[in-house]
Structure of MobP2 family relaxase:
Amino acid sequence: MTYKAGIVTKSKFISPSDKRYNKAIDYISRDAAQRNHVVESYHAFADDGALNIKNDEGRLTPLFTRNKSYLNSKEKNQLKRGFEVAKQNESPMWQTVFSFDNEYLKEVGLYSEGENGFLNEDALRNAARVAMNKMIDDMKLGDTVEWAGAIHFNTDNIHIHTMMVVKEPEDVLEKMVYKNQSVYRGKIPPVTQRGMKSTFANAIENREPALIRISQLLRKELKAGIYDKEWAKDAAMLYQLNQLRNDLPEDTRTWRYKRSEMAELRPKIDHLTQKILSEYHGESLKEFERLLKEQSDFYVRVYGENAKEGNLGKTYQDNKRKELRETVGNALLNAMREDELRENSARLEVMERKRVRMQQRKRNSVQWKIEKKALSNIKSFVGESYQDFLNRVSYERDQREKEWKQKIEQERDFY
């Protein structure tokens, strides 16, 4: 089945000197019936046949703004005054059309024809608000922006028209020379236009929850599945990891999936991460693949298969799978690097303990030698002193005996 674009988004700007600028300002204060008669006179896309913008065809809803779905007379006049101030300050006016294939709106449940037909105007207005906020943020237009929009019904394509100005352009817009005059640059960057359309389409189908879930699976759950190491008890897995470790560079700082050093190892890394996720986190991986398929189909449905943006539908899944491989690949390498650092730290700790023990033994050996020598010296000193003592005692005894004998002889001679 070939899809044509469900949504067409186009944006242009007109300068303050363009006669359509004043007509657009006058358009603000008119009621819906009157505005329907002058659509072509102010609209930058009046000549765009693809958008089919014509006077008196279908009907227009009341104007809406960023925070109002309906404006009373006073609010219309305030809005008109804001546009007049912007014109005086030479702000460009940006006009955007969001055009739907009515069949697409039926498919997503926002539109029905017939006697009980309906259009979910609130959903369309809210999507327009999100897209306009995206444009304001991307172009950094500040907080003096004024914009208004209306929904235009006709038999072929339902449209949303918006127009926007900046009341104080000198603070946010650059100037350029055009036809020898200094004017504010009003061109909308292509990336901003694509972002507006993508944001608008995601809001129409409320794709935000699915996109958030894809991000959660990719960046948290599947990534965490590598770190939790449920696979660490699998001998075959550990063997393959060990083989990969043997092939990795010695410098762990290069263990990054996108590094050139990993180029030849990426197939091995991808094989291991895919095996881990499939065997231990299969349900999360299946959910991830299902959401990718739904988002891919959404892009084709919204942009059409033949549009440049429609390639998103063809490449989205591949790009997200590539992102997943990189994310979980880095997670695996990080886990291996942490293990390597722990092992190295443990080895260094063991080596340090051995070194300390050897130093202690060496110190003990030296101390023992010192103590042994000292003891020997002490013994030698003590030994010499004792001998002297004995000699002295013997000498003193001999002397006493000699003196005693002399005394006896003297007494004998006396008598």
